[in-house]
Design brief:
alpha+beta; Lipocalin; 2 domains; 8-stranded antiparallel beta barrel; about 25% helix
Length: about 230
């Protein structure tokens, strides 16, 4: 909004008063009693421009966070400052979360894991700095099936020519109105028609901080921020 436009100036003037050239100086000189109101308007406008989250609804915040994390290899390609921006939007968005997200049916469905603040949280060692030298992540998907089944799948390309699939199946348990616990069976590794189960059980705890028909936000027990996009 341009503060020097006639329509903007008329918001603070009686209908009988007209300005030929409504500028900050003319408002101050001809109508000194309006100075404080004009300055208040100018400050409010500058705050709205400098802080994009002021008076911003959940739809705008959802669009904002997706624009920051999509096509970033799950967050790997982001710089430290960009991770901070994602966290700030997530913190603002969680103010709009339903009161008991664990009971919300919107948590069910298939989700792309489009972002994690710690790249090794989804995918483990395959997503570490060393692992990424050999494995290119093609897909990270989580399916949450009613009433209590969670399936995680990571599809990797080995040196660009061989696809490897790592999958986990777990059982979900609600710890309270926000926190869930998932106990996973041993992971399964699949290469073509060959598959093998290795390792042992694992456990994760996740706080659901926001969910709607487009995205779901989660905060791991170790502080990892996740952004899931509905498929």
């Amino acid at each position: 909004m341009a503060v020097a436009s006639p329509s903007a100036a008329s918001l603070f003037l009686p209908s009988s008063v007209k300005l030929n050239a409504p500028t900050p100086n003319s408002v101050t000189l001809r109508f000194p009693h309006l100075k404080r109101r004009y300055n208040a308007f100018r400050v409010a406008a500058s705050v709205s421009l400098s802080n994009p989250y002021v008076r911003t609804g959940p739809d705008d915040l959802v669009s904002s966070i997706l624009s920051k994390v999509v096509q970033t290899d799950g967050g790997v390609l982001l710089k430290k400052e960009e991770h901070k921006e994602v966290a700030e939007v997530a913190q603002e968005l969680q103010k709009y979360c339903v009161s008991e997200p664990v009971k919300c049916p919107l948590i069910f469905g298939e989700w792309d894991v489009v972002y994690c603040s710690r790249p090794t949280s989804p995918g483990g060692g395959y997503r570490s700095a060393f692992g990424r030298l050999f494995f290119n992540t093609k897909q990270m998907v989580q399916a949450v099936e009613a009433p209590d089944i969670v399936r995680n799948k990571v599809v990797l390309s080995v040196l660009g020519f061989l696809d490897v699939e790592v999958s986990l199946k777990g059982k979900l348990k609600a710890l309270d109105s926000e926190w869930i616990q998932v106990i996973f069976e041993a992971p399964e590794l699949k290469v073509g028609s060959w598959q093998v189960q290795y390792g042992g059980q694992s456990e994760v705890k996740l706080k659901i901080t926001y969910v709607d028909d487009k995205i779901r936000l989660g905060l791991g027990s170790r502080g990892s921020l996740f952004v899931f996009k509905r498929i």
